Amino acid sequence: GQNIDQPTEMTATEGAIVQINCTYQTSGFNGLFWYQQHAGEAPTFLSYNVLDGLEEKGRFSSFLSRSKGYSYLLLKELQMKDSASYLCAVSLYNQGGKLIFGQGTELSVKP
Amino acid sequence: EAQVTQNPRYLITVTGKKLTVTCSQNMNHEYMSWYRQDPGLGLRQIYYSMNVEVTDKGDVPEGYKVSRKEKRNFPLILESPSPNQTSLYFCASSSRGTVMSPLHFGNGTRLTVT
């Protein structure tokens, strides 16, 4: 079976750094996506990792370890507008159309 | 403007009354997919299409149908809706499946079946 785990909720302070973890056990792996979803809105793409290591994009970075089935999203200099749900999703190998999502991590940023 | 358009945004219906949720994209994307989102369960894939006339089941296809007669459109059909299909539905598209190609999502359709 396919399984993706993320913490359900996290709280952090404005200006701080927060790390959102994602572990996965899937039958095959093609890459891992992170999406951001504000309440009542559609998910929007943040990052994509296919090789081990860190991908940096401004205040957001994403890390992948394929051997450990592990990824994290790092958000720096947190802003109130970063309060949202963060979704980890795995693209399955040899199934170019299947994308499995974790249940999402609800991040609350407090002043 | 590049976008995925879903209609309607909100829909309330009764058990057994057939309905269609439309989805259209203007980015010439080959891949399109439908998801439902429920509290505590995240986004679950219903059906996807790698190209015109090619559709495949996702993880929760029961009770749904799709068609892909044209590249831009991918309607979701509920032949006989039931209350357990009450959910938030998202259509999405990408240029090349789910490999290296991020999804562009529509704004969602909130469906209530009574």
Question: Keyphrases for this structure?
Answer:
heterodimer, A: 111 residues, mainly beta, six-stranded mixed beta sheet, five-stranded antiparallel beta sheet, 11 strands, globular, B: 114 residues, seven-stranded mixed beta sheet, four-stranded antiparallel beta sheet, 0% helix
Structural class of chain B: mainly beta
Structural class of chain A: mainly beta
- Structural shape of chain A: globular
Q: Which outline of chain B best applies?
A: globular
Order of helices and strands of chain A: EEEEEEEEEEE
Amount of beta strand of chain A: over 45%
Separation, N- and C-terminal Cα atoms of chain B: 36 Å
Order of helices and strands of chain B: EEEEEEEEEEE
Put simply, the count of helices of chain B is 0
Strand content of chain B: over 45%
Q: What is the average per-residue confidence, as pLDDT of chain B, rounded to a whole number?
A: 94
The strand count of chain B comes to 11
Q: Helical percent range of chain A?
A: under 10%
| Distance N to C terminus of chain A | 41 Å
User: What does the radius of gyration of chain A come to?
Assistant: 14 Å
Indicate the low-confidence ranges of chain B by residue numbers: none
How many strands, which pairing sense, and closed or not: the largest β-sheet of chain A? Answer: 6 strands, mixed
Please describe the biggest sheet of chain B, giving its number of strands, its sense, and whether it closes into a barrel. Answer: 7 strands, mixed
**Rounded to an integer, what's the Rg of chain B over CA atoms?**
13 Å
Biggest interface between chains = A-B, 24 and 28 residues
Oligomer: heterodimer
Tell me briefly what this model is.
The complex is a heterodimer of chains A (111) and B (114). Chain A has 111 residues and is an all-beta fold.
